[in-house]
Amino acid sequence: MLKFYGYSSVHGWREGNSLDELGELEMEWYWVDFAGPSEQEINLLHTFFHFHPLAIEDCMHDLQRPKLDYYEDHTFFVFHSLGTTIDKQEIDVFLGDHFIVTYHKEPSEIIQAVESMLKRSQTHRDKDEYYVLYQLLDKVVDHYFPIVYEIEDHINEIEDNTKKLSMEELLEQLFDRRGELLKLRQTVHPMRDLLYRMLNTHHLEKVHQRKEYFTDIYDHLLKVAEMIASNREMTQDIRDSYLSLNSHQTNRTMQILTVISVIFMPLTFIVGVYGMNFMFMPELNEKYGYFFVWGIMITMAVGMFIWFKRKGWFD
Hints:
The protein is an alpha+beta fold. It has ten helices and seven strands. The protein has helices at 19-24, 39-47, 53-60, 109-120, 129-142, 144-160, 167-200, 205-209, 211-274, 289-310; strands at residues 2-8, 12-16, 29-35, 67-70, 74-82, 88-96, 99-104.
């Protein structure tokens, strides 16, 4: 599906679905959005706009790394946006003199939000293609924060264990959150590098004219990156704490089992001695020998238990 928006000093704000109509208007600037385009609409990138073949080829491939490429008459961007989940969606942008073209294979909340904002705007004379670029980037970065906050809240729940989950369930959820943070980092860090290049290049003069706005987006990306790093460190600390606690519990269990084994060792020895089938064993003829042996074993077991208790092995 293809849409265009733009401003003409003669016709004012215009919207449409045909590039033929766009060619008939004297546009000061315009924005064309390709949303899940057909093969015929994709060909317009070649025939109507004459974009570089390498840039068009990047559009055809899924999930290119966020990047910035300069060509003779346009600049090509790759953005990664996130919806309500950490599944990435690629938005390709062609930026030229007085125009901006966006390309995405699936419906995008980012594009819809910028479209709605432009439609609600009272004035379009003071806007241009770089204003649309700024709004796109700003919305992309703003959508990172709710996901990071949600993961951070879940990490705090894991740390407090308010649901009284088992150690295995907690560790499983913790590793899931670490995986999500890793995916976020793989999105945010390249976007941060992209903004840094935009702010420090001499090819995009109008970006420097709005440097304070794009710098604000870069600051937001730095904040998101720091939050991701902080949360990953928190998950590592929680993981180490749980593993240490689990190791401590294992050691305590082994210690108790060792004490029980040590208590039963002399009893097993006595039972083993009197379990031998020798005919001439003097103690077998004693009238109270059975009760005497039982008394010895009980005394030894109680004595060893008291001794281990005083040593603190059961604390």
